[in-house]
Amino acid sequence: MAIDWENYQAQDLYDELIRPSGRARKSAQKMCRYLSKLSDEEIAERKTASELAIKSMGITFTVYTEEEGSIDRVWPFDPVPRIIEKQEWITIDKGLKQRVKALNHFIHDIYHKQNIIKDGILPKELLIDSKNFKEQCIGVNPAFSVWAHICGSDLVRDKDGQVYVLEDNLRVPSGVSYMLENRHVMKRVFPDIFEDYNILPVNEYSLQLYETLASLSPRKVNEPSIVVLTPGIYNSAYFEHSYLAQQIGAELVEGSDLIVDSDDCVYMKTIDGLTRVDVVYRRIDDEFLDPEVFNEDSVLGVPGLMRAWKKGKVALANAPGAGVADDKVIYAFVPKMIQYYLNEEAILPNVPTYVCHYKEDRDYVLEHIHELVVKPANESGGYGMMIGPHSSKAEQQKFKRLIKKDPRNYIAQPMLTLSTTPTLIGNNVEPRHLDLRPFILSANKTYVTTGGLTRVAMRKGSIVVNSSQGGGSKDTWIVDMEGS
Amino acid sequence: MLSRVAKRIYWMARYLERAENTARLINVNTHLLLDLPRGIVLGWEPLVDIMGCKPLFSDLYSDANERNVIKFLAADANNPSSISSSIYFARENARTIRDVIPVESWEAINDLHDCVKEKLPHSLARKHRFDLFKDLIEGTQQVAGILAGTMLRGNGYHFLKLGRYLERADMTTRILDVRSENLLKTETEDLPPFEHIQWVSILNSLSAYQSYRQEIRGIIRSASVLDFLLRNHFFPRSIAHCMGEAKHCLNNLPHNKKLKQDVVRIGEELDLIDIDMIKDESLYILIDQLQIELADLDNQISETYFSLEREFKSEKTKEAKFAES
After folding, report:
1. Least CA distance to A242: which residue of chain B?
2. A261 and B155 in contact by Cβ < 8 A?
3. For residue B61, how many other CB atoms are within 10 A of its CB?
4. Which candidate, A352, A416, A443, B294, has a CA 20 to 30 Å from the CA of B200?
């Protein structure tokens, strides 16, 4: 007996598979039993097989370092799946659709009448100071009034089992290719366990992505020309860009492959000559998209792309300016947006957020800084934040000064205890913290991935799930338990 | 197919072929050196001329001795056509089109690059050189084999072959140049037997000796070697074969009319030559002409498929016309 469930420690928090009593949750019972039956050799064999599968499938992410240049690292994968019951997922799915719908209403409103400001829900100064609010986008009308076509929202579960939305990524969210590939790896390595479960498939995403992008085409043609615009091979997500381009049958292009001609249409340079492009799935940030409008030193972008987009000659997904809602201060207003635009209560709650711009909130934050997580409004990847309970007095003082100096730029949230899930460490399982990033597609219809990308912090006690910092990932199963 | 992707495949193929043939070129001279009797001095400087990089060489080195020339042609990063630079550029091109070429070919190019980087700088002495170049030539052949065995026969493959055969034709002319450049400094009355040695070494360096023997019997004469290397359609390193393959690739590509005509013309012109009349000076002129024509083909390919300059120009003129009327 290799895996010892008796000593699995999952107390004082929520574990995705194991109850506080130490027994498996209903949906995880078969999985746990299956794992218990494996010998040390069998576990090692499966682990090696999954590593080999990942290597031979070429699933990599790129890490760039000064010393060694660009290196492809094999995607870190944990073979114990994360299991969510379909009943619970249905609610999350609804909540995400509701949320993204409200966010798209918000972005469109912000670049048009700004009713949400006029009606006193969002203070104007908060919008104006948002780093990702792009004046150049005012008055533009993307198809279906949808701006964020591909959204990746990060979900976490607190110790009481409640699922919260931690943040929304509306610019260029990445990770969906790993979600798809993780399932392929699981099928190759654990084909037998799939027979015991009714696991909902994930591979519909590629088709849905194609349909979403195709529906945006300004020219109503049968097969619109779609390209994936990548910053190039040194980008950490290049594997994904290349993978998605192949999946949806799009050309993978760099900025220099495209031109905007005097007719304001976008063309790609091919051996047949210039070919019209209808939809650009861009994986380049707004700042670098068009040197004529944004960062003029950008060599990644395409001069004139904004002009073509504004004239309606090309669709950009996501639309420039959609990142305005990535701002963590704007995030705090999402539940109000849902009420305001949809007249509904939010199905998925936000993590309670103190907006330091408001005196009342600020005073509370300054007083309780040692127990809160303080974040700057516009950084991602965990940069520039302070985790109160883990911080020194000096750090707390520093952040108090930062907040007082620039209150608009800071928010604070209570410290959550992220849920854990059994993860293979050596030949045994140990609890590790995790999150979940589902992807939501929006155009003339809305689609949510079945599950999403589960990221897991491989270091004991760590809550850092980023792959560049020792994070791994798991296959995410939405299982239908009815009739079992 | 994107112009950028086509261009990178084309150049990846050219650089691989260039590295291989530069190794072959150095081998000709080395073989020649071993075959020649004492007292005959073999020059190394002509190799620099043949590769068309005399000015750069003069900037970097004062003396055109064996050590310097070999270092320059094989391992000098300052020389963009050196073997190590060629492998480096082949790899950089391959890296950006990894999703287009078979994954094993990328790995093989990567291995080749690592091998060259590690071994080349300290394997330039005659004793080690032969083994290293053998590894190098085998390495490039392995890449070619993987590509031939696994790459989709789409436009990418046509550009790959186009690059390979244009570069090969060019390098075959350069290897022939070894003869016309008069590597033997002494012109003596007993040159004829050594001339024979020179032609054999050229055939050997192109792995052509065996094939030549199967096609042509009798003594090895300059006319028959030239005929074989310029006009034999069945030997894969001859100019005629390279042009035939180039034409085949062009058949599958768009906007190919002018290019095809030019490729065919090169072959026809070669067929019209009275090969027995080709001697030192006329061989030099013939090779020079061929190299100019091959460079022109490269320019045309670049203009037609890669840079799209002409399209921009024609668009702009159209615009100007509208503005006038």
Report:
1. B99
2. no
3. 16
4. B294
Q: State chain A's mean pLDDT as an integer.
A: 91
Q: Are A105 and A142 in contact (CB under 8 A)?
A: no
Cβ distance B315 to A261 less than 8 Å, yes or no, reads: yes
- Residue B254 touches partner A, C-beta closer than 8 Å: yes
Structure confidence by residue, pLDDT tens digits, A264-283: 999 999 999 999 999 999 99
For the complex shown, is ipTM > 0.85? no
Q: Which pair of tokens denotes residue B172?
A: 């075959």
Which of these CATH numbers, 3.30.1490.270, 2.60.120.10, 3.40.1700.10, 3.40.50.1390, describes A354-414?
3.30.1490.270
d(CA A243, CA A318): 18
Mean pLDDT, range B246-274, rounded to an integer? 95
Q: What is the pLDDT of residues A224-239, one digit of tens each?
A: 999 999 998 888 888 8
Sign of the torsion formed by the C-alpha atoms of A95, A98, A101 and A106: negative
| Per-residue model confidence (pLDDT) at position A69 | 57
Q: Are A189 and A50 in contact (CB under 8 A)?
A: yes
Q: Is the pLDDT of residue B320 over 80?
A: no
Span A187-202, mean pLDDT?
91
Q: DSSP per residue over A251-296, as a string?
A: EEE-GGGEEE-TTS-EEEEETTEEEEE-EEEE-S-HHHH-TTTS-T
- How, if at all, do strands A446-448 and A386-387 pair? unpaired
Is B322 part of any domain?
no
The total of structural domains in chain B comes to 1
Interface A–B counts its CB contacts (< 8 A) at 48
For residue B1, give the nearest of A256, A262, A271 by CB distance: A271
What would the two tokens of residue A175 be? 């990770």
Q: How far, CA to CA in Å, does B59 sit from each of A185, B53, B80?
A: 56, 10, 14
Rounded to the nearest 10 degrees, the angle between the axes of helix B83-96 and helix B3-35 is: 160
User: Cα separation of B158 and A273, whole Å?
Assistant: 17
Architecture of domain A89-162+198-342: 3-Layer(aba) Sandwich (3.40)
